[in-house]
Amino acid sequence: MKTKINLQREYFSELPTEILSSSEFSVKLFRYPAGVEAVEIKNSRGKIIVLPYMGQIIWRAEFDGIDLTMKNMFSQPRKTHNMLDTYGCFAFHSGLLASGCPSPEDTHQMHGEFCCADMDRAWLEIEEGSITLCGEYEYCQGFGYRYTARPSVQLKAGAGNITIDMNVKNTTSIPMPLQYICHINYAYVDEGEFAANIPDSAFKLRETIPSHIKPTADWFAYTDEIKKMQSQGKTLTKLGNPALYNTEIVFLADDIDEYTDSIEAQITSPQGYTFKTQFSTQQFKHAIRWIMYNGDQQVSSFIIPATSRPEGFLAAQKAGHLIMLEPNETREFSVTTGLK
Question: pLDDT of 8-31, one tens digit each?
Fold first, then answer.
């Protein structure tokens, strides 16, 4: 049996309110001082904090006492329509008409229009052994496109991972472009080792330099070393020099459906824990590996599922990587991620 609990914005206050409690689960509603509503869902192993009305951003994830979220500059989420103004989350939905880092010629904002969307509805679905937070958002622009997006995140009993889903339907009378990145921002794992069921050589160092990063001479020297390694069939497989990741290092993998139908990728810590992500390469044909370590941001996103490279709309269009949704066509995406 499935039980549905419809949420309303007036249910949220700065004083957390527990609306569900069992031997395995707890659900609390609260509002951050900045005014952003949040849902905390706990099971016996940990918790997630999700922003139900702001793009269904997954703000925090913690399991077995391990914080999975990247180190960042934000003490709380900020009400904004620009992801850079609240870039402190565990995961967000980049897209959907455009995604990634725009080039100077692109007209879309960083990570697209949906990432901080003001959601129309939010509700909980309670089943035997799981709790799912669901949401719905209708995008509509005169003389442009209209779509309905339905993201959700599910936490199961006794699980140390979550399932992140996205459903997008084109409700325009003409074909609509779709770009989507399930942007997961994992905590930096010192001495962490990468592994995946696709070759290491599939991940190629990004050659372009987005406008938001400011490379140093040391960064250029280090990336030249990586390029040399890759020319010899090798690449970065272990995080051992955090000082060299002061400016982000990004690897891109294309056409990953040529290797396998289902990706399994992970990073393992010498402390004994492993972060793992799984997804279908029929849904996501591209992947990103993002590394950064400085005083403000520390991240080792070992794999980020994507429908195209994160280089903006025009680059995806030129490469032939845009998805075109026909009128009334729906696309579904699903990613499972967390502790192994």
Answer: 999 999 999 999 999 999 999 999
> Minimal CA–CA distance to 2: which of 127, 123, 124, 122?
127
Q: Cα separation of 261 and 280, whole Å?
A: 6
Q: Give the domain 3-339 fold.
A: Beta-galactosidase; Chain A, domain 5 (2.70.98)
Cα(163)–Cα(156) distance, integer angstroms? 9
pTM over 0.90: yes
Provide the residue type at 287 as one letter. Answer: A
Which sequence spans correspond to the domains of the chain?
3-339
| Cα(42)–Cα(204) distance, integer angstroms | 38
The verdict on whether omega for the bond into residue 339 sits within 30 degrees of 0, i.e. cis, is no
pLDDT of residue 211: 74
**Terminal Cα-to-Cα distance of the chain (whole angstroms):** 29
Do residues 117 and 141 make contact, with C-beta atoms less than 8 angstroms apart?
Answer: no
Other beta carbons within 10 Å of 184: 28
Arithmetic mean of pLDDT, 132-158: 97
Please tell me the distance from the alpha carbon of residue 110 to that of residue 115, in angstroms, as a whole number: 9
**Model confidence pLDDT, tens digit, residues 64-85:** 999 999 999 999 999 999 999 9
Alpha-carbon gap, residue 41 to 7, rounded angstroms: 14
- Judge contact between 150 and 139, C-beta under 8 A: no
Gap between the Cα atoms of 188 and 290, Å rounded: 10
Determine the pLDDT at residue 218. Answer: 84
